[in-house]
Amino acid sequence: MMPLSIKAIDHVVFRSKQPQRLIEFYQKALSCPLEASKPDLGLYHLRAGSSLIDIQEIGAKLDVDAPSDGVNVHHICLRLEGEWPGPNNVKQIIEEHGGTMVMGEGNRFGADGVGPSVYIQDPDGNTVELKGPPK
Question: Diameter of the chain by CA atoms?
Fold first, then answer.
């Protein structure tokens, strides 16, 4: 039997006590529009390029098998479109919307090869690597 083959990240799920705060952060700081929502389940889907970032409200109907320590994702990496905006521009945009930069620019390996990236944290403390095009 052939091994499974990965095409791309389909979605990641972040749990949040304040889902609206995260929705606004990803919409305003990273241009991720709300694609679908199921408020009765506490689930919100934001488009991130060809992938989704899902925000799951802690304690909502679907939040049944979450880890008790509150840490369920180390980080995700989002590949930015277009030219690399530079770390100062990224920092300004992220901080304007309640996030913080936690690691400055470096050339790091990713799906497209080595290219510039920075690490940020969203308002809930989830770590996200923002990656530019390969050099």
Answer: 50
